[in-house]
Design goal:
Elements: H1 2-16, H2 30-43, E1 48-53, E2 59-61, E3 64-65, H3 72-78, E4 86-95, E5 101-108, H4 113-119, H5 124-132, E6 137-139, E7 155-157, H6 175-186, E8 206-207, H7 211-219, H8 224-247, H9 254-267, E9 272-273, E10 278-281, E11 303-308, E12 310-312, E13 315-316, E14 319-324, H10 331-349, H11 357-374, E15 414-417, E16 420-423, E17 436-439, E18 442-446, E19 451-453, H12 462-469
Parallel strand pairs: 1-7, 5-6, 7-8
Antiparallel strand pairs: 1-4, 2-3, 4-5, 9-12, 10-11, 11-14, 12-13, 15-18, 16-17, 18-19
Helix pairs in contact: 2-3, 8-9, 10-11
Bound molecules: glycine (GLY) and manganese (II) ion (2 copies).
The site of glycine has 6 residues, from loops.
């Protein structure tokens, strides 16, 4: 009898807390989020509060929304993966009307049986307490009447959300309503005429400038727990590159190659992509963020540029490999490829704490400009050109272009080094170079005196790529029947 009761209580509690038994167990721990909130609190100015809104649900069309993805700051500080929430982190302890002392409070979307039947389980206020450890957790319907006197703070820090606001709130507990309520409370000036227009001048303690930088100081330096997830995301993304190198054949489509990468990601339980996959054959590779991936048949003489990152428990890799479709680099392809590789390797030589992002970029630019001149593609090394139009490095983490300090490298930062050369059709050079686009992008953990090359498993050297492309692929046997209705 007693054990029956326990059994029933167990299932009731699963329901009450939003059943999570089907969730992977290696998400960031609640201790991680708690410690991060404390670290932010330590950085906040005296008598201040930091405000974070969950990401918006964005409508795709009619009844379909874009797949929801939490705002990285919100996720970093709470672990909460649902929309329609606002989190406050106070520098000092506050006292609630009932005398409770607290220094953080979150308002989350309420449990709702019908909504959960359609779109999935919600944690609700009690689930947030139990699973995420945020003890001051309330339904967002309580926010309006919850009395926080915003005028008493010297600073209210938040990042400006004006551009993020859709002007057709669906119900009174959604993000837009929360933002609107917050704006009313602080007299925030609204540029969007359809939102509340506050008659009073805004409070003079609003600070929309500093929170991004404070969060960058935290998020740019990865903890041990984060690094385990970054490493996993990178390993999975390398596996995608390796399987594609084996499976690549002329005649495949860009979309099919994208599919192989993404299948490998999912096979290894990556829940998402860190950014839309870039798979561009030939001159499509010259479009830096080419995500159409529409070319139906890649041809033997082209190279294909593949920039993809698996997202694993929120953390993304960012890896690019460029390979010859037929498995062998042509002399021109190889010359450009080796130039990009050299630029990357020169940057790797100076990659350690103290080096600046600027130095890394400059190093790659110098190598590439000299090489382009030696090949006769540009006339002088200081010629202005568009063959390498981007910087070479950025942080990765919860975002592919992650928030982090961008002055110099520090231990436990994770960055990319990603030089490239892109020569479009009709470029002002010999046409044997036309349509060649190469980017090589790797991920590096900055260590005490250098780096750990996290994405080294995916071959980068031309002979290693050519050797791998000769190996058979399990997908060689995966041939689907034609769907053409030919009689
Ligand atoms: N995948 C985007 C980038 O390399 O920055
Ligand atoms: Mn990148
Ligand atoms: Mn990339």
């Amino acid at each position: 009898m007693k054990s029956n009761l326990l059994f029933i209580l167990f299932f009731i509690s699963l329901y009450a807390f939003g059943q999570t038994t089907e969730m992977p167990s290696d998400f960031l721990s609640k201790d991680f989020h708690k410690e991060r909130r404390q670290k932010l609190r330590e950085k906040l100015p005296a008598n201040s509060v930091a405000v974070f809104f969950a990401n918006a649900v964005r409508n795709r069309a009619n009844d379909v929304d874009y797949v929801y993805h939490q705002d990285p700051n919100f996720y970093y500080l709470s672990g909460y993966k649902e929309p329609n929430a606002v989190l406050f982190i106070f520098k000092e302890k506050q006292t609630a009307a009932n005398g409770t002392k607290y220094d953080e409070i979150v308002f989350v979307q309420p449990r709702n049986e019908l909504a959960e039947m359609w779109t999935g389980r919600r944690l609700g206020e009690s689930g947030v307490k139990a699973q995420l450890g945020l003890e001051q957790s309330f339904n967002n319907t309580e926010f309006k009447k919850y009395n926080i006197d915003f005028s008493k703070f010297d600073q209210i820090l938040f990042t400006d959300f004006e551009n993020d606001v859709r002007n057709d709130p669906r119900d009174s507990s959604d993000l837009y309503d929360l933002i609107d309520q917050f704006k009313v409370k602080v007299n925030y000036p609204s540029k969007n005429k359809s939102l509340s227009v506050n008659p009073e001048p805004p409070m003079n303690n609003l600070n929309t400038k500093d929170l991004h930088g404070l969060m960058g100081m935290l998020r740019g330096i990865k903890t041990k727990e984060e690094l385990a997830l970054v490493r996993k995301a990178v390993s999975i993304s390398c596996a995608g590159q390796i399987e594609v190198m084996k499976a690549m054949k002329p005649g495949m489509s860009e979309r099919e190659i994208q599919g192989i990468h993404e299948f490998v990601f999912k096979k290894y339980q990556a829940e998402d992509l860190g950014y839309p996959s870039i798979v561009g054959a030939g001159h499509n590779g010259c479009i830096l963020h080419y995500i159409d991936n529409y070319k139906p048949e890649i041809t033997s003489k082209e190279m294909i540029l593949m920039d993809l990152g698996a997202e694993y428990r929120g953390y993304t890799a960012d890896i690019t490999r460029t390979i010859p479709v037929n498995g062998k680099f042509s002399p021109e392809q190889k010359q450009i490829y080796e130039l990009v590789l050299k630029a990357q390797e020169e940057a790797m030589k100076i990659c350690k704490p103290g080096a600046t992002f600027q130095q890394l970029t400059e190093t790659t630019k110098v190598v590439i400009n000299k090489g382009l001149k030696d090949l006769g593609i540009i006339k002088t090394e200081d010629e202005r050109h568009r063959y390498y139009p981007h910087g070479c490095c950025h942080h990765i983490g919860l975002d592919v272009h992650d928030n982090g300090q961008r002055d110099m490298l520090r231990e436990n930062m994770v960055i990319t080094i990603e030089p490239g050369i892109y020569i479009p059709e009709n470029a002002n050079c010999d046409k044997r170079w036309w349509g060649i686009a190469v980017r090589i992008e790797d991920d590096y953990l900055i260590t005490k005196d250098g780096y750990d090359h996290l994405s080294a498993a995916a071959p980068r050297k031309p002979d290693e790529i050519e050797a791998l492309m000769k190996l058979p692929s399990p997908l060689d046997a995966f041939v689907l029947p034609s769907l053409d209705n030919k009689k």
